[in-house]
Design goal:
4 domains; OB fold (Dihydrolipoamide Acetyltransferase, E2P); 9 helices; disordered C terminus; five-stranded antiparallel beta sheet; 20 strands
């Protein structure tokens, strides 16, 4: 009897201990509250599309099917029983007594909390442009919609309609800082301008680590100066020297490019110590001199465009980019004293080839139809060197063009454009 009583007492003591444990837990239990974020485990995904979750409450939570439709399709399809998710308590007890929660709002709430944290840091984040209005640019960051006021956008070398088009192109990625968070008004404001320094340094370092000399990449023209064009390659600017814009003479980059234009460029050189990137456009264009002897001959009649007028004549570019000199003595009947009253830049002229020297990249033209072509002897007019070999490029040690701080120069270009 003693043995049986002892066992019964042990069971009763265990039951009392379990009861006390449950009673203590009930005092510690905090019921779900509206607006609260809780970690939950998916228990069931029913045929209606609703999801049942366990969030440590006295009853399971229900995620309505319409809430799941707000999720990214890939994430929605990958949800499965046993997954851990964060949920937002929409209604602790609806009219049917159910606990209604939201996965989509749970994820958004996490993003709001992260935005508030970023507000007090110098961290730069990436946002994707989704549109624009008169006040600025609409963007998406994670699962939240945000806004960049026009005064906080950067316009390196971009003005007017080109600025509007370039900065607000949909799907463009911008580096920004969080400057205002007001969840109650669903107001999330970013600044590209405040993130400029950190973003540029990060992007340029990343770009220089990925680029190789000889690469062909796409970029946006952001600045035009008399010495060349600045091209943004995705957060960092490179320079196309004016001599690398085309095979023919280019007096100013605006003659062949426009701000905001997307172009392909060839990477000439990289200086990782000074963060300078030299680019070329003409290296991606056919060299008109490579087969000039097969397409042209002395005495051939051609048509060209005046690219520059100088005291001793005019430079003429054929349509394929081959450029040469129409000397003053070969203009009209040969008696002109100066060329400026006879031709101007942009004029189309009918000419004959008077001299062709592809090996020296030289071609001479004449308009004196009734005279013999000049000989190649000592009395022949000496043609100047091809425009590209006359150009004086600053060198970086390997003969390729370089430039002073691209970003600063590009900003100056914006003011002067």
């Amino acid at each position: 009897m003693m043995s049986e009583k002892s066992e019964r007492e042990k069971r009763q003591e265990a039951q009392r201990a379990e009861f006390l444990k449950l009673l203590e837990a009930s005092f510690d239990y905090t019921p779900p509250e509206r607006g609260e974020i809780r970690s939950a485990t998916i228990l069931q995904i029913d045929s209606k599309g609703d999801v049942i979750v366990d969030l440590g409450a006295k009853q399971d939570g229900i995620v309505p099917a319409q809430d799941l439709e707000r999720l990214d399709p890939a994430m929605r399809q990958n949800l499965k029983v046993g997954d851990k998710v964060f949920v937002y308590v929409i209604n602790p007890r609806d009219q049917d007594g159910s606990l209604i929660v939201s996965i989509s709002q749970g994820l958004q709430q996490q993003d709001w909390e992260e935005a508030r944290r970023l507000l007090n840091t110098d961290e730069v984040v990436e946002v994707v442009v989704t549109g624009h209005n008169r006040g600025g640019t609409l963007v998406r960051w994670k699962r939240l919609e945000g806004f960049i006021p026009s005064s906080h956008l950067i316009s390196v070398g971009v003005g007017g309609a080109d600025r509007h088009e370039s900065l607000n192109a949909n799907n463009r990625v911008l580096g920004v800082k969080v400057i205002e968070v007001d969840q109650s008004r669903r107001r999330l404001i970013f600044s590209e301008r405040e993130a400029q320094k950190e973003w540029r340094a990060h992007q340029k370092a990343k770009l220089l680590s990925e680029l190789m000399e000889g690469d062909v990449v796409k970029g946006i023209v952001t600045g035009l100066r008399d010495f060349g064009a600045f091209v943004n390659l995705g957060g960092a600017d490179g320079l196309i020297h004016v001599s690398e814009l085309a095979w023919h003479r280019v007096d100013h980059p605006r003659d062949v490019l426009r701000i905001g234009e997307e172009i392909e460029v060839y990477v000439l050189s990289l200086d990782r110590e000074t963060n300078r990137i030299a680019l070329s456009r003409k290296r991606l264009l056919p060299d008109p001199w490579s087969d000039a002897m097969n397409r042209y001959h002395e005495g051939q009649s051609v048509e060209g465009t005046v690219t520059n007028v100088v005291d001793f004549g005019a430079f003429i570019a054929l349509d394929d980019g081959l450029e040469g000199l129409l000397h003053l003595t070969e203009m009209g009947d040969g008696t002109l004293k100066e060329p400026y009253s006879y031709v101007k830049k942009g004029d189309r002229l009918q000419l004959r080839i008077s001299r062709l020297e592809p090996e020296k990249r030289r071609v001479g033209f004449t308009q004196r139809w009734g005279v013999e072509l000049p000989s190649h002897g000592a009395e022949a007019t000496e043609l100047p060197e091809a425009p590209e070999s006359r150009a004086e490029l600053p060198a970086n040690g390997n003969g390729t063009s370089v430039h002073t701080e691209p970003a600063d120069a590009a900003e100056s270009a914006a003011k002067e454009s």
